[in-house]
Amino acid sequence: MEAFAFSRPAAVADAARSVAAADSKFVAGGQSLLGAMKLGLAAPSALVDLGGIAELRGITVAGGTVTIGAMTTHAAVAASKEVAAAIPALAALAGNIGDRQVRNRGTIGGSLANNDPAACYPAAVLGLGATIHTDKRTIAADDFFKGLYETALADGELITKVSFPVPKKAAWQKFKQPASRFSIVGVFVSQGAGGVRVAVTGAGAGVMRAKDIEAALTASWTPAAAAGVKVSSAGLNSDLHGSAEYRAALIPVLAGRAVAAAG
């Protein structure tokens, strides 16, 4: 690991100033960035630790919206009675990310900024039509995820919170890789004021919406409607955990199970 400068600001404005230098990086839970640094895959000149910024933590539920601060851990979301009451599927998703250590260190903001193609939180954000708030603007979920480890965030832009509209129905199904607990395929479905949304993680280069399944569920909100959709394997991942064809077959199966769980 290369040498780097380190700072721990107490406010968002201070963090933004601290990361202005070239090659500086924000660090939230550090679950991905520190590992990449140890392997020599990343070598920032400075790390700006967000752990001291109290305004980035916390959960509120009001006006049909669940708002979660960017530095709120997965464990805190999973344990929140307010989240469990408003969006049970979101609490369940958070409670099954990684292992206990990961859940107590990893944060929602860090997960979204990293945008791992098999991460769980991007599926919830896209599947619920959430809004990502930064220190500069708001970004709709459909505009945020751009591809493999790529987001709409500009250099030095900091996620401050995420707001989720409370759906009528929602559920999450994950077919996990047993060692890493990342999704080989994960599917989040919801039905709400904005219609039906189906988000898939683990199958491709990044989280994506399954528009054909959305159309089928809009016509008939039933497990059979979701499971009956034929998903193309074109462009999907193929690795030692499963072929592209295997992942394509999993998507409608998990979508059907999610609809059954949602009711």
| Rg, Å, rounded | 18 Å
CATH class call of the domain at 169-262: Alpha Beta
Total DSSP E strands: 14
* Continuous helix count: 12
Strand content: 25-35%
Topology-level CATH name of the domain at 169-262: Enolase-like, domain 1
N-to-C terminal Cα separation, in Å?
Answer: 49 Å
Strand order of the largest sheet: 4-5-10-6-7
CATH architecture of the domain at 169-262: 2-Layer Sandwich
Q: Which regions are unreliable across 5 or more consecutive residues at pLDDT < 50? A: none
Helix content: 25-40%
Largest sheet: 5 strands, antiparallel
Along the chain, the helix and strand elements come as: EHEHEEEHHHHHHEEHEEEEEEEHHH
Overall pLDDT level: 94
Structural class: alpha+beta
Shape: globular
The CATH homology group name of the domain at 169-262: CO dehydrogenase flavoprotein, C-terminal domain
How would you describe this protein?
The chain is α+β, with helices and mostly antiparallel strands. Among the domains are: 1-54, Uridine Diphospho-n-acetylenolpyruvylglucosamine Reductase, domain 2; 169-262, Enolase-like, domain 1 (2-Layer Sandwich). It is built from twelve helices and 14 strands. The chain has a five-stranded antiparallel β-sheet with strand order 4-5-10-6-7. A hairpin with a 2-residue loop joins strand 12 and strand 13. The longest helix is centred in the C-terminal third of the chain and has 19 residues, at 244-262. The protein is globular. The N and C termini lie far apart (49 Å). The mean pLDDT is 94.
